[in-house]
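Deviations from the work plan: none for this task. Representative record:
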Amino acid sequence: MSGTRTARSFVSAQQVAELAGVSRSAVSRTFTDGASVSETTRQKVMKAADSLGYHVNHLARSLINEDSGIVCIIGAEINTPYQARMLDALTRRLQAISRVGMVINTAGDSSSVELALRQTLNYRAGATIVLSGAPPANLIKTCVASGQKVILINRDDHLDGPKNITLDNTAAAREAFLMLQRAGCERLAVVSSLAGTPSLVARTKGFQAAAAEAGLKVTVTATGPTSYASGFEAGRVLLSGSDRPQAAFCVTDLLACGFMDAARFEFGLSVPQEICVIGFDDIEQAGWASYNLTTFKQPIDQIADHIMRLLAEPGDSASDDGTACFQAVPVWRRSVRPR
Amino acid sequence: MSGTRTARSFVSAQQVAELAGVSRSAVSRTFTDGASVSETTRQKVMKAADSLGYHVNHLARSLINEDSGIVCIIGAEINTPYQARMLDALTRRLQAISRVGMVINTAGDSSSVELALRQTLNYRAGATIVLSGAPPANLIKTCVASGQKVILINRDDHLDGPKNITLDNTAAAREAFLMLQRAGCERLAVVSSLAGTPSLVARTKGFQAAAAEAGLKVTVTATGPTSYASGFEAGRVLLSGSDRPQAAFCVTDLLACGFMDAARFEFGLSVPQEICVIGFDDIEQAGWASYNLTTFKQPIDQIADHIMRLLAEPGDSASDDGTACFQAVPVWRRSVRPR
DNA sequence: TTGTATGCGTTATCAG
DNA sequence: CTGATAACGCATACAA
């Protein structure tokens, strides 16, 4: 009497087979894509499975397949608009190719990233996507050696095993400078953060370099983490001086929003008449009427699509050199004076 | 010769045992909490494991344990500030109790929620947290019957198997009305959405009821999904009429931000002098200087803590009736006139 | 403490 | 097309 409803446990293929009067294999085949089962058997099995509430145990299946269908997504600050959108884009697409995302929220420090990467191995994830943080090289090696696909986003250290996805931060930063230069701004500032993320550093350096070529100096500020509050604080600091900057390139929209609010509400400045602001990421809030922030859009959908393509490739394909670089495109709104 | 480094596959306990010169069980015990292994054996095993890059296969382990350590989190609109914060709070805490969150991003429609719930069964998740969407009752039953913990957030249909977590939306809405009444507002509006989520409906009805008791009529608007754009559009509609409302209760901060921006930039109204606005959720943006939105804070941390407590309970404990109700607390900022 | 043997739920292989 | 059987990687009862 295994058919009673009291079973405080998952239903197994065995039980379904018994009820349907067929073998375990028949049940297995019914739920395996591309296996050959007669329509009658299939019907019997489905009926029994339905009444018992049977669901294939992907975990047991993966014991044989060596692929659990799990894709680990490692990231810190999931609640940040940009990261949240990336997470949304990824999980949605994973669903579509019948995989599933396992989110590992690291504290950001390297030891917790290491722990996260171990989890990815524990769960036999077929792939690991690292949104932020710097995982130790030896662990990455283990992942790759285990047949896992490792995808690193916005890191600059290019190891050979994993696939890298980067943004052309330098080009974007240079473009940002040009936009401000054309707007007639000469006293320039960069609002950055203390996070020291490779991409943020690249944006800062790229802007500085472009300005230097034009013979202009840039004041760089970093007051805390990459947040609205830090941007606000940076505004306080930068704008209280005697000759305030005429424009600020904020390496993140979040910083830009904070900076703009400081400019307006702490110093009564109007944007873009008295100060121009450029952000980065094109988060949703950048498009809100209060900000109308001119910024650079990260091609999240393209990136996510690219990742799915990487996942679809056969495991050992080293067709490309493993690095894909995307362009951030400027989004003109109203925080920079028209030329 | 299984020890060669070419193995494009995960390392098994077997391989570790061979290298360490011990039995498979010794390896197993080394990685099992509370098993007894001599220090010498332990060292040998650890060394071998390290050099081989061995990691316990949680999936195989769960075949025996009946608990994979996976907790499924089902939600739509992960990229929304509120949901993103909830996701962040949950995944962070799950890590802390050495579980891991599997995020299933549904399209929101019921068929995709059903698919998500099936995934939860496929992966033998020990628990499922449904952030949004209405899963079919029979599937929930299967989950519960399989020994899974099912936690539903903000649903109003109280089945007996799952644990429910709700917010006292009615009380909060009533409070919102009182706040506006004290500010001297008489022509009132509610800005809602077409989503028809139970909690949103409850907020709307609660506000209406409170107003009705005071003999005041309320204009209810819903122009689209629960978004900034919808709030903006609602503002356009509501404020263009001849006698515009003096206050708006927006059932979500996102709607509130959109509404405020419409009021200011489309109609040149100042908040709170010419129109008062109250939101709901206390998303990060509500605290930004541009909005300074008076709103109701959802106790996300409390809720997440409570969920962790539910997960820690023994599986069959029905100590409580299965429903926990939290209070949203008003956060006074500057979008409502002081009394 | 250690090793041996068994079973967890599934799929692949192979014989019918 | 179907059923029996052998893996898959692991934890545990049991015997040593």
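Chain B has twelve helices and twelve strands.
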